[in-house]
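Quick log. Single chain, no ligands specified.
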Amino acid sequence: MSLLLSGAKTMTFAGTEMQCLEIYTGEAYTIDLQFTDAGGSPVDATTWTLDASAKFYQVDSVTYGSALAGNPDEVILGNITLDSPQPTPSGYANLTATLTTPASGLGYLYVPEEIANGSGSPNPTPIPPLHDGLATPYSVLVIITLGITRPNATSSQDDYQKTPLGFIVRYQ
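-> predicted structure:
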């Protein structure tokens, strides 16, 4: 099962291709989710559960592909460094993935404004620096992983699938 986001660009991170969207500090986003089969029909997700988690990175440069080069939907990342320590989860506790109409495969992923505004203690979420010559220029990369738990009738065990989504956080 793949997840396609409207308006997303493609990014490859550690060998994994993922959808990537830009978000701005101080803004929250709700991303509609619709699970469908290969034919485009809604999937009955009444037995599924969703969850979301986040990892934070610093990227020293972010550039975008061009239509002239044949890659307009590509994000090119420079040196990537995992933040250490990682922000305290209480700083982005409102990160939510849920099914709203499970029988029709409908749900949402909510990305709260706290994802990059200095929330949480003792390790707050990052705040992207201004690119005004006064701060070290870097971008914040947040990899949000959407987790999907589905019962498996054959094994009587739950299947668990992780789908990573990349968010480049911009200062606004």
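Residues 75 and 83 are 20 Å apart (CA to CA).
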